[in-house]
């Protein structure tokens, strides 16, 4: 089976990253199906961590892609919509288009930005505790470059037809709302749209100039860990007189007036009680 070509357009990227140009990305079905099961995940473990349920999810994602897209003829070089996809209910089409938008953006980020793992921002919000300012919209995903370690923000949209300026503006506005990841400013804020022209898949993405509005800021996780654990550590230090450097068992203290016992697992007690939040984050409780 011959290779596939996805037409795309880069707009407003730094010239050192991507030229402002149109082109065709050479991909294979393997690339597309790999993107389908890995989009939103940080590594292979998270793809298959739930055993048989994860296997069924992978099959579901693969089936959704092959249900919606086809290579027209064995030598066809374009991905086009299937007749079944075109005849689906509008709500069903919307859900599939959204997923195609995510996986296509993931594919381009991996191929052209050296960022092979795009992560769902909402999945990591509980850990990173993002601060929402001036509205609830936010980008869909973030990704880190393997070569530069820079973080990029992506708002990914899927559309049935060629997008207009208004849709492009909305995509870029959402991408701009993420300032930083783990305290590191995002290098790119990309508005990406996957759409169909004459039934063939095309891709548009833009790295807009920052706007004046105050955006979402994802605080440094080290700070978040301190905020969460410091009150407990202070309580144990003040009431228990624990000497953290020599601690080799779990740290605990009884609060009689509350009929409560507070305890820190021995694996992480030394780093918590010495306020070493970076080391605490890297510990694994055994």
What does this structure look like?
The chain has 286 residues and is an alpha+beta fold. The protein folds into two domains: 203 residues, no CATH class; 62 residues, no CATH class. It is 38% helix and 24% strand. The protein contains ten helices and twelve strands. The strands form three sheets. Strands 1, 2, 5, 6, 7, 8, 9 and 10 form an eight-stranded mixed sheet that branches. A two-stranded antiparallel ribbon has the order 3-4. The longest helix has 23 residues. The termini are far apart.
- State which percent range the strand residues make up: 15-25%
**Estimated helix fraction:** 25-40%
Mean pLDDT level: 82
Label the structural class: alpha+beta
Low-confidence stretches: 129-134, 244-248
Order of helices and strands: EEHHHEEHHEHEEHEEEHEEHH
How many strands, which pairing sense, and closed or not: the largest β-sheet?
8 strands, mixed
Tell me how many strands there are.
12
- Count of helical stretches: 10
Terminal-residue CA separation: 49 Å
Alpha carbon gyration radius: 23 Å
Tertiary shape: elongated
């Amino acid at each position: 089976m011959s290779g596939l070509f996805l037409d795309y357009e880069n707009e407003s990227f730094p010239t050192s990253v991507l030229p402002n140009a149109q082109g065709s990305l050479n991909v294979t079905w393997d690339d597309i199906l790999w993107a389908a099961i890995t989009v939103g995940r940080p590594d292979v473990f998270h793809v298959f961590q739930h055993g048989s349920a994860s296997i069924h999810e992978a099959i579901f994602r693969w089936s959704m892609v092959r249900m919606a897209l086809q290579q027209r003829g064995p030598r066809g070089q374009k991905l086009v919509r299937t007749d079944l996809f075109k005849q689906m209910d509008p709500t069903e089409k919307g859900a599939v288009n959204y997923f195609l938008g995510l996986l296509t953006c993931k594919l381009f980020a991996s191929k052209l930005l050296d960022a092979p793992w795009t992560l769902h921002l909402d999945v990591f919000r509980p850990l990173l505790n993002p601060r929402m300012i001036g509205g609830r919209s936010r980008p869909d995903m973030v990704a880190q470059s393997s070569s530069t370690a820079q973080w990029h923000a992506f708002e990914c949209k899927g559309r049935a037809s060629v997008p207009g300026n208004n849709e492009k503006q909305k995509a870029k506005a959402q991408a701009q709302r993420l300032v930083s990841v783990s305290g590191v400013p995002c290098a790119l804020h990309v508005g990406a749209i996957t759409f169909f022209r004459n039934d063939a898949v095309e891709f548009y993405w833009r790295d807009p100039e920052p706007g004046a509005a105050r955006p979402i800021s994802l605080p440094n996780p080290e700070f978040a860990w301190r905020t969460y654990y410091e009150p407990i550590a202070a309580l144990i230090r003040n009431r228990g007189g624990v000497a953290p450097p020599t601690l080799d068992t779990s740290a605990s203290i009884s609060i009689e007036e509350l009929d409560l016992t507070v305890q820190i697992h021995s694996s992480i007690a030394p780093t918590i009680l010495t306020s070493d939040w970076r080391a605490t984050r890297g510990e694994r409780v055994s």
